[in-house]
Amino acid sequence: MRILIAEDDPVIAIGLTTRLKALGHEPLGPAADGQAAVELAREDPPDLYLFDVDMPRLDGLAAARTLAEEGLRRPIVVITGVDDPDLIERSIASGVSAYLTKPIDDRALDAGIRLAASRHQEFRALEAEVSKAQQALEDRKTIEQAKGLLIAATGISEPEAFRRIQRTARDRNLRLVEVARKIVEQKALLEGGGGADG
């Protein structure tokens, strides 16, 4: 996994780089602050972010938030030298997948990376499901609108309007929603007294 490191302490940064290599990952950076991390991620997007929270110019949470807003959301593991419950809450609100407190051993680092990657995959799958459900709802609305237009234009029943859309879709090898969109696009024609017998 390609992991971008952002850590302002050069000794810790070198240690993290060495550990990531030992765990079989490809470390990128390290960036010395959050702004440099954002710039590196823009140039060469990694698979995962490993960011110190407390850095100059832009802290790790703000850097992660900036990248997410730019469409560069990735699994995020944050590391900190401070055990602060408020910081944990801010991390969760920023979309952090794993939170590690210094000093970090290899097992904790490996577990944090695996956890972050797994949570990110689950989140992406959930996003895809929500997007699919939203699209299905939009498609359903378009089909309902098309049925309504056919009913108003021709005086046929709702089941007959739906059958016409189905028949047209089958005959033209189109999806129902594609036929429905064509009917909706012809709304002005239908409302002006023109017919649509699909």
TrEMBL record:
InterPro entries: ANTAR, CheY-like_superfamily, Sig_transdc_resp-reg_antiterm, Sig_transdc_resp-reg_receiver, WalR-like, WH-like_DNA-bd_sf
Residues bearing the modification 4-aspartylphosphate: D52
Top-level taxon in the UniProt lineage: Bacteria
Residue ranges occupied by any ANTAR domain in the UniProt entry: 123-184
Pfam families cross-referenced by the UniProt entry: ANTAR, Response_reg
Response regulatory domain segment(s): 2-117
Keywords, comma-separated and alphabetical: DNA-binding, Phosphoprotein
PROSITE patterns reported for this sequence: ANTAR, RESPONSE_REGULATORY
Protein name stated in the entry: Response regulator
Organism per entry: Conexibacter stalactiti
